[in-house]
C-alpha cells in the first residue's frame, strides 16, 4: 500500500473529494494552511478523482485529466511503490507554491512550473496506460481499410521475376503463397534481395543469371540457411511465419511487430473462418500510430507529456555528442563509403535506414533498405559489383528510378505530439533529428521507436 496525498490549493469555503477508489463517494477534505488536503492508503494502480468545491465539481487542470465515455472530465493519477518507502510517494505529490487571486468567486491560477523528473515519469506512465487502453479495446479492423488490394507472389516464381514485380509495384515486402499448403508461408523482402546480391557477388560471372533465372523464391528461402549459416539465423528461419489474427487487439499486433523486429505482419482470418484466402491484409506500425494519433487529438489537452520536447523524452537513437545514451548505436555513412558497408550496417543492426552525412556530420540524405530495389530495374545488379559501388552512386541510381525525395526531419525541441503526428503520415517511417542551422545529425526516431515508447 502507498500513502497518497491529494490537495486542492485554489481556495474555497469547503471541499470534498471523491475517486474511483472511493466508489465515487464524497470524502471531506481538511484545511491545512491555505489548501484542502486528504490522504489515502492505496494499492498501486491508476485512479480517477474529482473535487467538490463549494458545491461545484472541479478538476485540477495542472494534473493529468481524462475524459470518460460520457464526456465527463476527471483527474487521473498513477500510484506506484517508490523504493518501498511510502513517505516518498507522499512527498512526490506535494504542491509547489502557487499564487491565488480571488475575484468575485472566480478562481484564477498561475501557469504551473516545469514538471520535475519524478512528475515527468508519472506523466509518462499515465500516458502509456491510456494508450495501452486505447489499443487493448481496438482491433485490426480499426486500422485496416474495409476495401483494399494486397499483392501476393507465388513462391514458385523465379527470384528475378519476383524482384522485378516488387520494383515495378513499389513494394519493399510481399507475402508468399504456397500452393501445396494452400496458405501464406513467408515474406519476400528487400533484405532478401540484399542477401541474394551479396551471395551472387562472390561468383556473379558463373552463377548470377542462372541463380536468378532458374531458382524459385521458395528454393532461395530453403537454401538461405546454408548460404548464411549460424545459430541465430537458423533459429529465425525455422520458426513458423509470424502473423496475427483478425481477432487480436492492436496492442498485441504492435507488440508482435516490435518484438520480432519486422516492418509488417500478415493478418490471418480467425481459425473459425476457413473459406477462401486466409490472408486479410498486412498490419504495420505507421498505420497503428496513425490510429493512436487520431485518438490523441481528442485528449491531447489532458496529457501534458505530449507538449514535452523530444530531447527530454526517452525515445529514439541519439548521437553521443548530445550527451544522451541509447540502446542502439547511431550509425551514419558518407557518400564515398562502399554501398556494401552501408547495407551490412542495415542488416546487422536490423534497421531500415541510415543517414548520409558530409564531413561535418550534416545531413545530406537517407539511404533506406528498400532503396536497393532500384537495382532491380533493367537488371542493373547484373552489371555492377557492390564492392565498387559507392553510396553516392547508389543514390544517383535511386534518383534516376524514383526521382529525388525530401528527408523527413525534426528538431530536438519538437514536441512529442508533433513527432507522433509526423510519423503517422503515410510514407514517413522515420525522422532524422537535426540541429536547425547546421543540419548536424543528432539522432533518429522511427515509427518503431515511437511505438516502443508509447507501450513502455
UniProtKB/TrEMBL annotation:
Pfam families from the entry?
Answer: AMPK1_CBM, CBS
Enumerate the UniProt keywords alphabetically: CBS domain, Repeat
Answer whether the UniProt record assigns the keyword Repeat to this protein: yes
- Annotated CBS domain ranges read 146-206, 326-382
Q: Does the keyword Ribonucleoprotein apply?
A: no
Q: Transmembrane segments in this chain: where?
A: none
| Gene Ontology cellular-component annotations | chloroplast
Known SUPFAM superfamilies for this protein? CBS-domain pair (SSF54631), E set domains (SSF81296)
Q: Name one GO biological process term.
A: regulation of glycolytic process
This chain's protein is named: CBS domain-containing protein
Q: What is the species of this protein? A: Brachypodium distachyon (Purple false brome)
